[in-house]
Amino acid sequence: MNPTPPPVVTASPFAPVSSLTRQNDPLRFSLGSWRHWLIIGSVVVLLSTAIVATALAPTDPAEGAGYTLGANLGAMFCVLLAPLVVLGVALAVKQVKARSALFTVGASLLAGLSLLYIPTTALATFGKASTAAKVRYTAALSESEAISAAVFKEASDLNSEFMSKGGVAPKTLDKLAAIDERLSILRAMRAANTTTLARLDTLQADIEAVFDKHSVSDSVRAEFWRGYNRGSGGIPTLRAIRVLDKKLIDEMVRYVSILRDSFGHWEFNEEGLIVFESEDALAEFNASAERIQALGAEQTALVASIKGAGAAPAR
């Protein structure tokens, strides 16, 4: 009869606690540990959010809205700071239960902050994009207004000068020098009006080119044109007004030229009316005055009719 072999001792009853509970140590990586997957998932979410936010956000510093990947990663690190501190403390704690509790807190805090980071970053990204769009539109609007103002400036300045001299009021045309000065301004107005008509033909394309340069959306463009049409009647109406301007200027040149050609052969009577020595000159002068009044009334009615349909010109 063989004696029973002594039992094999696999662990000493006096072995350190850490060796007996190592399998329960939360810092020991295990694919089955939900805390490890929580940390990995949170880091992936944070990195992905930072990268996507960088890709979607405007990056032109001139627009005051762009953030680089480094800036977004820096913001992500700030989010990670608190849970990293907790996890760092967990590394320094030797007691397994306390370590496990801290590790759970750190992982949970990291997950919670990562979920909070997504909507916060999304709001910031869309906010930056919205700010950039406003900055672009403001710049485009400023340039468009400058282009539009330049179209009319020369003609407007000359018209102001002409009216300040007295326009075609007969009593301001009693001297040959005054008549010649008025004719000179009228000829300059005629040339400026021709330039204005040419610029009006390209005004829409010029403004659209500015919008293209600043990446203004179609909806914002349509809103701009609705406002432009309400305020001005639209480019076709503006052009019609300038065509009447041309007719008026041509007629005023004829009117003042009659006075010049007959200078010395007409005078003012007691009622302040011009009396010509020549019946033909008088008839021509009165006919020209009537045409000026009719053209002026037509233009006034056209300007008064401007209400704007609000439809954007065809692009």
Q: What does this molecule look like?
A:
Helices cover 72% and strands 2% of the residues. It starts with 16 loop residues before the first helix and ends in an 11-residue tail after the last helix. It is an all-alpha fold and 315 residues long. It has helices spanning 17-20, 34-56, 69-92, 96-164, 176-213, 218-232, 235-261, 279-304, and strands at 266-268, 274-276. It folds into two domains: 25-130, no CATH class; 165-304, no CATH class.
Briefly note the structural class of the backbone. Answer: mainly alpha
- The end-to-end span amounts to 109 Å
For the sheet with most strands, the description reads:
2 strands, antiparallel
Tell me, rounded to a whole number, the average pLDDT.
76
| Element-level helix/strand string | HHHHHHHEEH
| Basic shape | rod-shaped
Q: How many domains, in number, for the residues? A: 2
Strand content: under 5%
Residues in helices, as a percent range:
over 70%
Which regions have little confidence, pLDDT < 50, spanning 5+ residues?
A: 8-23, 59-66, 308-315
Task: Please state the CA-atom Rg, rounded to the nearest Å.
Answer: 42 Å
Strand order of the largest sheet: 1-2
Number of strands: 2
Number of helical stretches of at least 4 residues:
8
